[in-house]
Amino acid sequence: MMKAVERQPKAAVLGAPTFWGHLVDSERMLAPLMIAPAILYIVALVGFPFLLAIYYSLSDATIGNLSLNFVGLRNFIAVLEDPVFRQSLKNTIIFTLVSQVLVLVLAKILALALLKDFRGKWLARFLILLPWTAPIALGTIGWMWMLDSIFSPIDWMLRQVGLLGAPGAILGTASNLYWLGIPSLAMTSVILVHTWRMLPLATVILLAGLTAIPQEILDAVEVDGAGFWRRLFQIMIPMLIPIISIAALFGVIFTFTDMVIVYVLTQGGPVHSTQVLASWAFFKGIEAGDLAQGAAIALFLFPLMACMAIFMLRLARRTEVT
Amino acid sequence: MGRLKRLGARSTLYAVVAFFALFSAFPFFWMVITTFKRSHDLYTLENNPFLFNEPPTLEHLHGLFFDTWFVQYLINTFFVGVVVVAITLVVAVPAAYSLTRWAGRWGENLGIGIFLTYLVPPTLLFIPLSRVIGVLGLQETLWSLILIYPTFTIPFCTWLLMGFFKSIPPDIEEQALIDGYSRLGAMLKIVLPLSIPGILTVVVFAFTLTMHEFIYALAFISSSSLKTVSIGVPTELIGEFFEWGQLMAGALIPSILVAIMYTFFLDRFIAGFTVGAVKG
User: Fold this and answer.
1) All domains in chain A, ordered by first residue
2) Is there a contact between A138 and B30 if contact means CB atoms under 8 Å apart?
3) Set of chain B residues whose Cβ sits within 8 Å of the Cβ of A205
4) Within a 10 A sphere around the Cβ of A176, how many other Cβ atoms?
């Protein structure tokens, strides 16, 4: 208030306040005007399409047909009765849970190591971050070549040490394992690539948390005679709970909704054994042109997203209060 | 005794780091080897795949640049990236400023709300959006991507910028107002120049996020000449007959370029992700 009064004479000197002169100086008008484009963009191209997805899932929309008829829950029933959908849902949950448990354990180990100073740290950091910083579609192509049915270097190494391709070898007498051709190995491969991809993000998030623990606390406990494991489990992990949940949150969201790894690596095969919700929605909705069923499949991703959002909001609130 | 123990701890540290660095970088290391290997060497099963059994070659790189659409993918990606960055800045900078400075408590919540839309996955939206793109007549054009990509760059960049603006003390603007600047003038002439590091970070992230994007590009674009790098390489270079040398070269070059840009700015990116959970 005081300031507005102080600036009054200046405006008088410049002449009568014009519309523009008023606008550029009024918080009450500028604030909404400057937020509006962002809100409009999001409402028009995130909010509206989201409602459209719900609408499609209740209709008989296809790519070729513009007239829509309301069909109630028929799409959801058709989707739920489809064995491929059930397989996809199961795979999505398995891939997410297994890879995220692995990611959190490995990230914790790696973050503890990266907390220390050592020579060549910048290079190690660059290399360790590569799976996250490089486009995932391109990184996955590297894996595709490494898991090739004939030229896989992994198979080559196994052959060299006699675990594969020799009479009586543990992994079989065939010359190759056919990583992407056998359902169980294909699932293992997808989980491996997911773990590889999310490890860097979880590591840097945990590292940010570890650096924030005051060194005095750790020193004090060490003086009191607590060993490494007691410090880890009784001090560091409890103090890191909020940051571990953040890492888990992003890991789960990105893995659960991802279709790139499956699309590039296996196309959901062999015979849908690695199909996930997102890739199945794509094959149904875009490639087969059934927008309605595609939308219904994709909507199964939403309940989880909503839970995550609530969790995130509560966490943000709590840290604000303290 | 203490020294021996320290030496042990040191070697464990190096072993752990080396193991993870190898695990993370191996597919890229593998791309490098494949890129420079002669086809005959690549496809001879008896050869050690880790060594150059025949002299290295540039034939795959040459093929990639002159016999495929790769250069066009790079141009398309760059074009989309630049326009998306421009749109993102024009929309996100004012929004973030307004939310941090003028909207108070209400702005904080709105900011979190905007950030949450970043978590709405493309896999949920690509089906209705493909219809929206069709109705707008943008299918099979790069403009479809330019229209849609800001839906994820704006939320994320607004959130990042809010963090930057919060770190600039409001006293600086108060002083500018006393000196006779208008509200808008104080923002444009005083605060923005101070936020250059933040804005640069946002430019890099918006650009790398567009280079990473896969699903929308796959859903909206099918002509070879319009593809971006992240869909062009996996869908076009894998033809009937696998040219692994070209494919690996095509995956390697953009990966390294993006990785270098990204790594420089990663700490700020993480600061955005960890919200307020780290006090520091």
Assistant:
1) 83-285+301-321 (1.10.3720.10)
2) no
3) 270, 273-274
4) 21
Paired strand residues for B242 = B238
Task: Choose the mutation target among B124, B192, B247 for the interface with A, i.e. most A CBs under 10 Å.
Answer: B124
Tens of pLDDT, residue by residue over A262-300, are 999 999 889 899 999 999 999 998 888 888 889 999 998
Beta bridge pairs of residue A70: A59
Domain boundaries, chain B: 68-236
Q: What is the DSSP string of A55-70?
A: HHHTB---SS-----B
Is residue A61 within 8 A of residue A292, CB to CB? The reply is yes
Q: Which residues of chain A lie closer than 8 angstroms to B185, CB-CB?
A: 24
CATH classification code of B68-236? 1.10.3720.10
- How close is the nearest chain B Cα to the Cα of A183, in Å? 22
CA distance B181 to chain A (A): 9
Nearest Cα residue to B246 out of B9, B100, B62, B113: B62
> For chain A, what is the radius of gyration of the CA atoms?
27
Q: Answer yes or no: are the C-beta atoms of A209 and A240 closer than 8 Å.
A: yes
In angstroms, what CA-CA distances link B170 with A20, B102, B183, B193, B229?
24, 11, 12, 14, 43
pLDDT digits (tens, 9 = 90+) for B72-96: 999 999 999 999 999 999 999 999 9
The interface predicted TM-score of the complex, written ipTM, equals 0.87
Q: Which pTM was predicted?
A: 0.87
Minimum Cα–Cα distance from A28: chain B residue: B102
